[in-house]
């Protein structure tokens, strides 16, 4: 196996263009598992975690957005001031693997793998993130909901790199929660991100591990928007319960070796209800 290690973005795009069958690796926490298990046998690996442009993030206060380079790690997403700008992403990052995995694993890699259980993905979906892609000859940007097309399937072309993710900075409470078979080092059996936007009095909810890809729960969002009080930060117990039912109804889980569909559907409803209660703590 040969490895190329570009340090500039244009160099990275050029080598990916000339080796479209090469495997791009950032932290390697998914890719190396695949290689070690024999599921992938790349002749060429292109490591992008030393490309400076992919390792940084910027905040645009005027546009109220944060642009995060694809090779920014979970450990970096957990640090101030980024953690205060996108608290749900920091909260999701804290649940990923172990310190070693969080030091190596990247947001771009989570998107590249596009597992329905990826912890960064419900946050990106709830917040309406945009994924920026580039090849040696073109650039394009896709809403994250268009980028994720199925179980471990994305809109990425062979000669493209994920360069960055732009995330709106919302005013309002936001949080992430997941259920697994234990408290740490665990793949989500069900996950949810809830974000509120006080400027539009809206509630956003995206759920993971309960369908082929991340699901935005439009009915639950509309119901919460009409039923909660942003002024008093309150939601009645009936609203909290109904919100969970609508989240569960939006999910399409399957039975697999980790959990039954019925358990996942129940769990995602509980997660959604608890997140709504955290966002609106008063009855
Ligand atoms: C022990 C362990 C525990 C884990 N725990 C969790 C967990 O709790 N939650 C969770 O969500 N994940 C978990 N993972 C999975 C993994 O850590 C994450 O999905 C991580 O975000 C992958 O990032 P990476 O940089 O390591 O990706 P890599 O392994 O480098 O790449 C993953 C895929 O994305 C592609 N890719 C990477 N970067 C780019 C780019 N810039 N442009 C285009 N394609 C790209 C690669 O080609 C590959 O297909 C765990 C993995 C391990 C080994």
Structure explained in plain terms:
- With 283 residues, the chain is of the alpha+beta class.
- The chain folds into two domains: 2-168, Uridine Diphospho-n-acetylenolpyruvylglucosamine Reductase, domain 3; 174-279, Enolase-like, domain 1, CATH 3.30.390.
- Helix content is 35%, strand content 23%.
- It has twelve helices and 14 strands.
- The chain has a five-stranded antiparallel β-sheet with strand order 4-5-10-6-7. The chain has a four-stranded antiparallel β-sheet with strand order 11-12-13-14, with helices on both faces.
- Helix 10 packs antiparallel against helix 11 (237-250).
- It is globular, with a radius of gyration of 19 Å.
- The N and C termini lie far apart (60 Å).
- The model has no long low-confidence stretch (mean pLDDT 97).
- The structure holds flavin-adenine dinucleotide (FAD).
- Flavin-adenine dinucleotide is lined by residues 23-31, 33, 48, 70, 95-97, 101, 104-106, 108-110, 112-113, 118-119, 156, 161-162, 185.
Give me the secondary-structure topology.
Elements: E1 2-4, H1 9-18, E2 23-25, H2 31-36, E3 44-47, E4 57-60, E5 65-69, H3 74-77, H4 82-85, H5 87-94, H6 99-104, H7 107-113, H8 121-127, E6 130-134, E7 139-143, H9 144-147, E8 148-150, E9 153-154, E10 161-168, E11 174-179, E12 190-197, E13 202-208, E14 215-216, H10 218-227, H11 237-250, H12 261-279
Parallel strand pairs: 1-3, 2-3
Antiparallel strand pairs: 4-5, 5-10, 6-7, 6-10, 8-9, 11-12, 12-13, 13-14
Flavin-adenine dinucleotide is lined by residues 23-31, 33, 48, 70, 95-97, 101, 104-106, 108-110, 112-113, 118-119, 156, 161-162, 185.
């Amino acid at each position: 196996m040969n490895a190329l290690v570009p340090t500039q973005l244009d160099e990275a795009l050029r080598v990916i263009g000339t080796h479209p069958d090469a495997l791009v690796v950032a932290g390697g926490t998914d890719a190396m598992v695949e290689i070690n298990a024999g599921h992938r046998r790349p002749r060429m690996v292109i490591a992008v975690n030393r490309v400076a442009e992919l390792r940084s993030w910027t905040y645009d206060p005027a546009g109220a957005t944060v642009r995060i380079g694809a090779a920014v790690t979970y450990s970096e997403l957990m640090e101030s001031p980024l953690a205060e700008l996108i608290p749900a992403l920091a909260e999701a990052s804290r649940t990923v693997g172990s310190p070693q995995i969080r030091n190596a694993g990247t947001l771009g890699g989570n998107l590249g793998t596009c597992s329905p259980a990826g912890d960064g993905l419900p946050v990106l979906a709830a917040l309406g993130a945009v994924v920026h892609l580039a090849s040696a000859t073109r650039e394009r940007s896709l809403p994250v909901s268009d980028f994720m097309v199925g179980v471990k399937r994305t809109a990425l072309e062979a000669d493209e790199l994920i360069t960055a993710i732009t995330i709106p900075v919302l005013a309002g409470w936001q949080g992430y929660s997941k259920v697994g078979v234990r408290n740490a080092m665990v793949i989500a059996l069900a996950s949810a991100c809830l974000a509120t936007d006080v400027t539009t009095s809206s509630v956003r909810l995206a759920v993971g591990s309960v369908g082929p890809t991340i699901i935005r729960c439009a009915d639950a969002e509309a119901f919460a928007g009409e039923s909660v009080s942003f002024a008093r930060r309150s939601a009645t117990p009936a609203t909290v319960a109904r919100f969970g039912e609508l989240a569960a109804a939006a999910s399409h889980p399957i039975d697999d070796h980790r959990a039954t569909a019925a358990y996942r559907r129940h769990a995602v409803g509980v997660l959604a209800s608890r997140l709504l209660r955290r966002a609106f703590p008063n009855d």
